[in-house]
Write a structure and sequence with these properties.
Elements lengths: L2 E2 L5 E2 L5 H6 L3 H18 L5 E5 L1 H5 L1 H13 L6 E6 L2 H5 L1 H12 L3 E7 L6 H6 L4 E4 L1 H4 L6 H16 L3 E4 L5 H9 L4 E2 L13
Parallel strand pairs: 3-4, 4-5, 5-6, 6-7, 7-8
Antiparallel strand pairs: 1-2
Helix pairs in contact: 2-4
Length: 202
């Protein structure tokens, strides 16, 4: 999700999501993005689409219902990946875990975003049966400078492989970092070295 301001500058969510939440527009914006993602998935079945959702989305009745409805109607729900940032509140709620169980049973896939900071928990990955683990950029960008960071990233990658989960490195913007991750057998790379966010070309 991006907003173009009056000067033609493209603003990432960091600049407006908090305002959207305070003005109670956040739910509607999420619903628009979810709808567009499913429309594009139907139009381009060869491409996978990732949608970032939060606990607010899961607990919002309209957004939750929209997700279930779209998955029921999708011709290939396996092309939809829901990216979720883990939080303490999320881990403590059975209804959130039930939501994950339902969308997984319908064919959608789950990615845990920003793993390696905050409330990161290996048991939680297994509980929700995550398909992807996105390793936080704060770890990735320092992997070539700090032995402890390297060890943490390696641990996450090794754990994910043993648990049949794919790993994704965020914030890859350096060739040296890229080579280290490739040697660690990371599955996917994401960052400015690979490509910057662009308007849709599909």
């Amino acid at each position: 999700m991006r907003i173009e301001d009056e000067n033609g500058n493209i603003l990432p969510p960091l600049h407006f999501l908090e305002t959207a939440k305070n003005s109670r527009l956040y739910g509607r914006l999420s619903q628009i993005i979810i709808t567009k993602a499913f429309e594009m998935a139907e139009k381009h079945p060869e491409v996978s689409f990732s949608i970032n959702i939060t606990i607010e989305d899961i607990m919002d009745y309209k957004t939750n219902t929209l997700i279930i409805d779209k998955l029921q109607k999708a011709s290939n729900p396996g092309k939809i990946i829901f990216e979720i940032v883990e939080s303490e509140e999320m881990r403590l709620r059975n209804d959130v875990l039930n939501f994950f169980t339902v969308i997984k049973s319908m064919g959608a896939r789950i990615a845990i975003d920003d793993f390696g900071t905050g409330y990161s928990n290996f048991e939680y990955l297994l509980t929700i049966k995550a398909d992807f683990v996105k390793i936080d950029g704060s770890l990735i960008k320092n992997i070539h400078k700090d032995e402890s960071t390297y060890a943490i990233v390696k641990l996450v990658i090794d754990f994910a492989k043993q648990s049949n989960m794919k790993t994704i490195a965020e914030f890859v913007s350096d060739v040296e970092v890229c080579e280290i991750l490739q040697n660690l057998k990371i599955d996917y790379l994401q960052g400015y070295l690979i490509g910057k966010p662009l308007p849709t070309l599909l």
